[in-house]
Design goal:
four-stranded mixed beta sheet, 18 helices, 6 strands, 415 residues, elongated, 7% strand, alpha/beta, D-Maltodextrin-Binding Protein, domain 2
């Protein structure tokens, strides 16, 4: 026990004092803040200030579309109307698009007794926001025109087709009903899942790299003279895990200080409000520790069978596959957090940490599912540690011998 704690202390102090720890602790949040800030600033005014021409065979419809686009203050669109327009005028407008004089041209045909058709020609094929605005304005104008043609007054027709906003509320199991924001909940769960999976994988990889470095430097031959292989592995897992918790604690304290500042409070209010429950705050370190122990134990066993870091990197995509699977299920989980697939994935140990936080962002699962998920993870950690420790005992002193499957089975029997 004493040797294990000494090794844990050595691993902890060595990594905390390193330049890499300082850089990632300060630099990683700064990089994410810059990325989020750039994404937010670049999205401001997205799809706005477009110069669009509407060419139609129906002048009334074309002007209704124009009025709807101009009334949209977020679009800030300049709209020219050519109606009734001919094919020659349409061709001339397309040439203006090609020359960059205008951003796009909407062509609308309304043949008598037939369904109207519309095409939009633009220089960019990726301006989906402008296309969506044009589609909404066209459909709104068509319904308005049909209602007025049927004898309804213009004001009544516009009131009939006007949209209605929906406020979201969540009915909790304790009987309370609180205002919710599905988009904010999605991003909260997504960011917490990314933080959890990223830190788990990073520190699991740190354990594996540390084993490879010490194995290639032959320092283990000295360390094994005073400590058992199991103590070495356990000390390494405890020390590096404590480094991870230290780094996350620093990030959380810094994040809380920023969020409680007056500027951030104003930014995060209203539709951007994000609420973190006590359940999420308590379970985050628990699932971090369990996920870290599971993946780092797996990586430690893999590292003991490898000769170089390059060889270890070959196995990393396979080891990270459960994390990719977790994020592949994100839409299913957010939309239906209690489906069979969602529950099964939150109980499957390799995906449980990420999936549970994605589920919690939509609805807090029952307590028995948390208990079963944590129990299964603890059992899985014990199984993986059992195999990894035995591979570690033999593989740490193996040099120049390829670790084939029969050889690995032989190592397990030796230990």
């Amino acid at each position: 026990m004493r040797n294990m704690l000494l090794i844990a202390r050595r691993e902890y102090l060595e990594q905390v004092r390193s330049r890499a720890f300082r850089m990632t602790t300060i630099g990683l949040p700064a990089v994410f803040a810059i990325i989020i800030g750039v994404s937010y600033l670049s999205s401001l005014g997205l799809g706005s200030n477009r110069h669009v021409a509407i060419a139609a065979t129906d002048a009334v419809l074309a002007n209704q579309i124009r009025n709807l686009l101009v009334d949209d203050k977020t679009a800030k669109a300049r709209v020219d109307v050519i109606a009734p327009a001919t094919e020659e005028q349409r061709t001339a407008l397309v040439k203006q698009v090609q020359a960059g004089a205008i951003d796009g041209v909407l062509w609308v045909e309304t043949p008598a007794g037939k369904t109207p058709t519309a095409t939009y020609t633009a220089q960019s094929s990726g301006d989906f926001i402008t296309t969506a605005r044009l589609k909404s304005a066209l459909n709104h104008a068509l319904v308005d025109e049909r209602l007025t043609a049927a004898g309804m007054k213009q004001a009544a027709a516009e009131a009939l087709v006007s949209g209605v906003s929906i406020s979201s509320f969540q009915a909790k199991k304790d009987g309370s009903v609180v205002k919710s924001n599905p988009e904010a909940s999605l991003w909260k769960g997504y960011l917490m899942a990314i933080l959890l999976s990223m830190t788990t994988m990073i520190y699991g990889m740190n354990v594996a790299r540390s084993i490879i470095q010490e194995k290639t430097s032959r320092i283990f031959e000295v360390m094994l003279a005073i400590a058992k292989p199991g103590d070495l592995l356990a000390g390494k897992l405890i020390g590096v895990g404590a480094v991870g918790l230290t780094q996350i604690a620093i990030w959380l304290v810094a994040g809380a200080a920023i969020l409680f500042s007056p500027f951030a409070a104003a930014m995060m209010s209203g539709e951007y409000a994000v609420h973190i429950s006590w359940t999420e705050a308590v379970l985050f370190p628990i699932y971090f520790l369990l996920g870290y122990l599971l993946y780092s134990s797996l990586f430690a066993g893999l590292a003991a069978t490898c000769e170089t870091e390059q060889e270890l990197q070959m196995y990393m995509p396979l080891a990270a596959a459960p994390t990719w699977l977790s994020f592949a299920l994100i839409l299913l989980i957010i939309n239906d957090s209690n489906s069979v697939w969602s529950v099964a994935a939150s109980l499957f140990p390799p995906t449980a940490p990420v999936i549970m936080f994605l589920r919690m962002s939509a609805e807090i699962p029952p307590a028995w599912q948390f208990a079963l998920s944590i129990s299964l993870m603890v059992f899985s950690i014990w199984v993986v540690l059992w195999f990894s420790t035995r591979l570690y005992r033999v593989g740490i002193l193996m040099y120049g011998k390829r670790a084939t499957l029969p050889e690995l089975l032989r190592w397990l029997r030796y230990s």
